[in-house]
Amino acid sequence: MTKDMTQGSPMKLILGFSVPLLFGFLFQQFYNVVDTIIVGRFLGTENLAAVGATGSVNFMVIGFCTGVCSGFSIPVSHKFGAGDFVGLRKVVANCVWLGIALSAGLALLTTSLCRQILELMQTPENIIEGSYNYIWIIFLGIPATFLYNITAGVIRALGDSKSPVYFLVLSSIINIGLDLVFIVNLNLGVRGAAFATVISQTIAGVGCLLYLIRKFEILHIRREEWCFERHLAGSLLGMGLPMGFQYSITAIGSVILQSATNSLGSDAVATFTAATKISCFLATPFDAFGSTMATYGGQNVGAGRLERLGAGLKACTILGAIYSVIAFLIVFFAGNSLAMLFVKESEASIIGNVRFHLLCYTICYFPLALVNIIRFLIQGMGFANFAILAGVFEMIARSAAGIVLVPILGYTGVCLGGPLAWILADAFLIPAYFYVKRVLIRRRGQNSDQKKIAKV
Fold first, then answer.
1. Taking Cα atoms as reference points, which of 1, 12, 13 lies closest to residue 297?
2. I need a labelling partner for 169 at 20 to 30 A (CA). Which of 33, 153, 189, 413 fits?
């Protein structure tokens, strides 16, 4: 049930691992897109804007949860790569304790503050109530987010990228069905979309948990291995919190950019919502490449196979470049059709702005590919703190777009925020990769010298 990524062709391993992940991310984005389409088509542009106005704060909080869980999986991949199965089980047990504590605390904090956050973001008065109804339920479901991401992260860290996809596909289908029931039949409005998301993610999390318990014998945790251990918890938090903060720091720039977009009116918010949903869907291969490189880097560092890191990076970069061209061509020829999935044909100005937004993004998709590939590889190598610094650069770029460009250029300034963020992050990440690799090589040399001295 596991896959060893420390031996064999990096290109084949990366493709074999990332393709199932890609389908999982596609389905995840698919039901997010369907949520938005159903809201836009059945509830109108105003409710579409209400859901879209929560996008950046949603990313800030849920992205933090996802990042923390991704960080937790890195020590798991290190233990698996090193063949330390007792340590592996202890790490997973401490993931459970930390996940319970963090998810409960975050759910309580965010549900109590979400209205104040929406007001600070200058959410237009005609949509703020809908935004609150939607995001409050999403935040209440944070424990479900932790459940799925921790269990799926552990499964992927052991080299199995396919199984979490099956549960994600199931939850996507359930989510779409619940959307139609809650919104169309029960008239629950935007709250129905939120309930559908939380329920479906809970199902995916429970499915991954049951699968993990039944199929992975090396994870059958003994009673004494369930103990909370400070050093293991510290190691997990040392990996998880920087990755979580990286998402949140990046999202601060997104919140500022969203606030600037909100000031342009609900039509601009609806445009931004549709363009962002399409872009996130088109960018799913980069998410798959990133998660793949985190596992690839973690296993090879754990096994001491540092010479394989560069080959894996080269292979994944080639794949990212090829897909970047494909995504641009899709938007160039089908951008208007994609926009019309969310709004009616009569909304000509929104459709044109959505296509323009997508062109600005996809023409800079290769820098985005590098952001995901290199950042996650560095995290897998054990240097999660660098993720925070990369997030700072993205935050600066998006904040500058919101504060400086939007007042001057209007919606064009909104469209430039993402590309500027990716380019600035790459300016840090590319040299950072070579630095951390040199650090690992130096550490390996020091350990080798110490072993020789001990033998003497």
1. 13
2. 189
Q: What single letter denotes the amino acid at residue 248? A: S
Query: Which ranges of the chain have pLDDT less than 50?
Result: 1, 454, 456
Torsions phi, psi for 83 (to 5 deg):
75, 20
Task: Please tell me the number of Cα atoms within 13 Å of 167 on its side-chain side.
Answer: 23
Q: Which residues contact 310 (CB under 8 A, 6 or more apart)?
A: 437
For residue 344, give the DSSP letter. -
What tokens does 443 get? 């550490």
Q: What is the largest CA-CA distance in the chain?
A: 82
Which residue ranges make up each domain of the chain? 10-444
Q: Hey, is 29 helix, strand or coil?
A: helix
Question: Cα separation of 23 and 226, whole Å?
Answer: 34
The helix/strand/coil state of 347 is coil
Half-sphere exposure of 92 (CA within 13 A, CB side): 30
Token pair belonging to 223:
């009673």
* End-to-end C-alpha distance for the chain, whole angstroms: 42
d(CA 79, CA 95): 14
What token pair was written down for 40?
A: 């836009």
Q: Which of 392, 420, 414 minimizes the C-alpha distance to 402?
A: 414
What's the length of the chain? 456
Contact (CB, 8 A) for 178 and 200? yes
What distance in Å separates the CA atoms of residue 144 and residue 10, rounded to the nearest whole number? 34
HSE toward the beta carbon, residue 173, CA cutoff 13 A: 5
Instruction: List b or e across 245-256, with b for residues whose CB sees 16 or more CB atoms inside 10 angstroms.
Output: bbbbbbbbbbbb
What pLDDT does 422 receive?
95
Which of 252, 270, 249 minimizes the C-alpha distance to 261?
Answer: 270
Q: Look-up: residue for tokens 């251990």?
A: 229
pLDDT digits (tens, 9 = 90+) for 271-282: 888 898 889 889
Read off the pLDDT of residues 100-132 as tens digits, 9 standing for 90 and up.
Answer: 999 999 999 999 998 998 888 888 888 889 899
* Cα atoms in the Cβ-side hemisphere of radius 13 Å centred on 382: 20
Say how far apart CA 155 and CA 201 lie, in whole Å.
17
pLDDT of residue 22: 83
Sequence-distant (≥ 6) Cβ neighbours of residue 166 within 8 angstroms: 207
Rg (CA), the chain: 22
